[in-house]
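pls read this stuff:
=====
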Amino acid sequence: FNPMFRRVLRLSVASAAAAAAAVVAGRAAGAGSVQPAEIRSHYHLPALRPRLLVAEEHQTQADPSSGAVFATMTAATPATGGQPLQLLGTACRFKYGFVKVYAVGLYGRNLAAAVQSSQAATASELARQPGFFEAVMGCRPLALQLQMLRSVDTGTMVQALQDALQPRMAQLRAQPAPAAGAPALDEFRQLLSQGLGTAGAASGTQIGFVFTADAVEVSVNGQVVGWVRDPQLAQALLQTYLDDHSVTPELHAATAATLWTQLH
């Protein structure tokens, strides 16, 4: 080290030690234990940051297929009923079987009713049980978080979701696909397009959907864009990730494993 730097360092350490000793001496009369905040205040030291490494390890979970990291709990918002939702499972959306487009996390709360009556002996059996994911989709509120792994322009992203939604809404409404839920689909397209803007769904973008009994909240990077109040659209969007033709089949096994663990 530079001699001048060593001298300044020795003076700083000595001054800090003297300040700490002064605080301790001032509290020796039995007024209680000395708190770190008192020493910082006396010497004008910056506030110490809490150790977050251990907490962060428990508060995040990586998707095995993509490496994307998800919080294990959502924030408590009006859309979630004022309480956080728990991460139930993650998966990766692949294109052409190998291109990683985005990772998705499913969040929920109070899903025990969906599995309590199950006679499945394993988590795999639970995932294959008829009606299981229909029961899961009925346990609102639920939330989906999409984390983009590659950049996709707004038009392509919105069209891809619409292509997944249209046939599902047609089945739910018993109407021809082009006409099924057209106003709700248009509103959904507009909200998502507005949220993504001209920048599109760039790598790292987070798209969120929170599902209540009859509506879905749309957000981009944590900012709520708006609501679509249409129960069929909300159900169709959940089905995109949870029905038998899910675009993310891995989400089935991951969700079933989480719920199985909670009950056993």
Summary: Residues 1-58 have pLDDT under 50 and may be disordered. The CA atoms of residues 179 and 195 lie 25 Å apart. The chain is about 45% helix and 20% strand. The radius of gyration is 26 Å.
